[in-house]
Write a structure and sequence with these properties.
Chain A has 116 residues and is mainly β. Chain A contains no helices and 12 strands. The chains are: A mainly beta (116), B mainly beta (112).
Chain lengths: 116, 112
């Protein structure tokens, strides 16, 4: 069965420091991969997506993610974190197959805190 | 273009009451879904629809009903509210199976 693991429940980084949030997935074929961000009291906003092609994907707000098939990973990165990046981040995997296999599977999220 | 809209934003129910959470999208997406979000549990899929007239159960469907009479609307009905249904509910739409989903702002429901 498909699954998504975000190993870090909570991460704290200093403003201006680099950030990497980890995401590992379990899936039999090449998946569609996504990162979402959720600010407190808000809905989820799509940061970036990977379907195929270049394994380094650029997203909004200066984020990028790299798909590594050999490691079944899709880690999210940002070179310099801003205080406004404090939020919860969700990794998700999907496929183009029909029925329930077409639904997205979400990780349980990583909460990011930013120290001034 | 409003995207995905949900009403109400907040709701308090007593145990046993029923209500409908509304969801609408103006992106002409065929695929829509409902999730609940609970602390430490991430997002769990309740029901989804791949087009008007077609719905199916997700991971946690018990206590909820859905219908899809139009492409735009996908309401979620709580038949007899229970405290275990206290949660934040999100509606989402997508241009296709497995594709990116666009989320509404959520409904925070409390059942006492």
């Amino acid at each position: 069965a498909q699954s998504v693991t975000q190993p870090d429940i909570h991460i704290t980084v200093s403003e201006g420091a680099s950030l990497e949030l980890r995401c590992n997935y379990s899936y039999g074929a090449t998946p569609y991969l996504f990162w979402y961000v959720q600010s407190p009291g808000q809905g989820l906003q799509l940061l970036l997506k990977y379907f195929s092609g270049d394994t380094l994907v650029q997203g909004i707000k200066g984020f990028e993610a790299e798909f590594k098939r050999s490691q079944s990973s899709f880690n999210l990165r940002k070179p310099s974190v801003h205080w406004s990046d404090a939020a919860e981040y969700f990794c998700a995997v999907g496929s183009g197959y029909g029925g329930s296999q077409g639904n997205l599977i979400f990780g349980k999220g990583t909460k990011l805190s930013v120290k001034p | 273009n409003a995207g995905v809209t949900q009403t109400p934003k907040f709701q308090v129910l007593k145990t046993g009451q029923s209500m409908t959470l509304q969801c609408a999208q103006d992106m002409n997406h065929e695929y829509m879904s409902w999730y609940r979000q609970d602390p430490g549990m991430g997002l769990r899929l309740i029901h989804y629809s791949v087009g008007a007239g077609i719905t199916d159960q997700g991971e946690v469907p018990n206590g909820y009903n859905v219908s899809r009479s139009t492409t735009e609307d996908f309401p979620l009905r709580l038949l007899s509210a229970a405290p275990s249904q206290t949660s934040v509910y999100f509606c989402a739409s997508s241009p296709g199976l497995g594709r990116e989903q666009y989320f509404g702002p959520g409904t925070r429901l409390t059942v006492t």
